[in-house]
Write a structure and sequence with these properties.
With 341 residues, the protein is an alpha/beta fold. It has one domain (48-324): Alpha-Beta Barrel (TIM Barrel), CATH 3.20.20.100. Helix content is 37%, strand content 15%. The protein has eleven helices and ten strands. The strands form two sheets. The protein has an eight-stranded parallel beta barrel with strand order 3-4-5-6-7-8-9-10, surrounded by five helices. Helix 2 crosses helix 3, helix 5 runs parallel beside helix 7 and helix 7 (204-212) runs parallel beside helix 8 (233-243).
């Protein structure tokens, strides 16, 4: 995609001259059906027969599973292995790629965006590319965006998210006049990104406030976790986002297997895909074997019925009532493999 003069001028003036161009409370009234309701929907991407959904008001047809390219992806030892997995996933219809500026393996120095750039530079049109920006001050956010574009070897994103919204105070800072949200809106207007969104792991009040701005296209948030019964996060956020026409993606869908013995990861994915409302889920992958397992699950997906969902939610309660989930800790940022704990 070529950028016109005005957009090129904007990027240089706004970002700098260095950009390289190239216990779960679930609503059981409706369970997502197995039929593909997007039949006949035109898209520039090729899902290779995988089940798809429309990402809210973006109008983009996406596979119901995005590849999470954070900490798990960064455990892949070599660049060649990482690229082989990503190319293989793309060849088989997994074209929604979710990364972040801060996804770094602190032990090996591997950077998610840099790895992806080796593929993006040659296959950009095939990928729905999403990254996340953590900085909360405008100048710092500009620098992160510039570096992300350079790493990814592209001049534009499909989705740019404000990373890890934590609290009402965080929302106030993000939404202040001349703040990061205003910067994101300008980026969208100028075509640096097609859509904007945000991610969050915890505070439902903060995430609801972000939704209520009416300025976002998409939300990525963690499945229900411990909240001392004070919040019905999914029951609050999903309907609110849907009313705004936002695309909704779930993350942290596989994590209960780390806490609950004997739980089947495939059933966790099936459960998450059966929740009514989200367009899909983001799942971390670290090998072609894992990609194949997820492809098989998607190709043969049958949603849980309401009784199955209720039973599985009960099984998950020990996980969602656990007070020491990593992403509940202040200052947590996902996707950083090898960080100190």
């Amino acid at each position: 995609m070529r950028i016109n003069y005005s957009r090129r001028k904007f990027i240089k003036s706004t970002l700098g001259a260095g950009v390289t161009l190239a216990g779960a409370q679930i609503a059981f009234s409706e369970i997502s059906g197995s039929k593909n309701q997007t039949k006949g929907f035109k898209t520039q991407y090729d899902p290779k027969g995988l089940p798809t959904s429309v990402l809210g008001k973006t109008g983009v047809l996406i596979p119901k599973m995005a590849i999470g390219l954070g900490s798990r992806f960064l455990t892949i030892k070599t660049l060649d292995e990482a690229l082989e997995m990503c190319n293989y996933a793309l060849d088989n219809g997994l074209y929604y790629w979710d990364t972040a500026h801060s996804y770094v393996n602190n032990e090996t120095g591997a950077i998610s965006e840099e790895r992806l750039g080796h593929i993006v530079k040659n296959r950009r049109k095939e990928i729905f590319l999403s990254t996340k920006i953590a900085a909360r001050e405008t100048d710092d956010a500009k620098k992160e965006i510039e570096l992300s574009l350079k790493r990814l070897q592209t001049d534009h994103l499909d989705m740019m998210k404000i990373h890890a919204v934590e609290s009402p105070e965080d929302v106030t800072n993000i939404c202040k006049k001349g703040g990061v949200l205003d910067l994101f809106s300008r980026m969208k207007e100028e075509g640096v990104t097609r859509f904007i969104g945000f991610s969050g792991h915890g505070n439902a009040t903060a995430l609801k406030a972000m939704i209520d701005t009416g300025r976002f296209d998409s939300m990525l948030f963690a499945m229900n976790h411990y909240d001392a019964n004070n919040e019905n996060r999914q029951g609050t956020l999903i309907p609110s986002a849907k009313m705004r026409g936002m695309g909704i993606m779930l993350m942290k869908t596989i994590r209960p297997k780390e806490t609950i013995k004997g739980i089947d990861a495939k059933e966790l994915v099936r459960y998450a895909l059966s929740i009514d409302g989200p367009s899909g889920i983001a799942v971390g992958m670290d090998s072609k074997k894992v990609v194949d397992s997820n492809l098989d699950l998607l190709r043969n997906f049958k949603p849980m019925n309401s009784d199955e969902m209720l039973k599985f939610a009960i099984v998950l309660q020990p996980f969602y009532r656990h007070e020491n989930l990593e992403w509940m800790n202040p200052g947590y940022h996902d996707g950083q493999a090898g960080r100190a704990t």
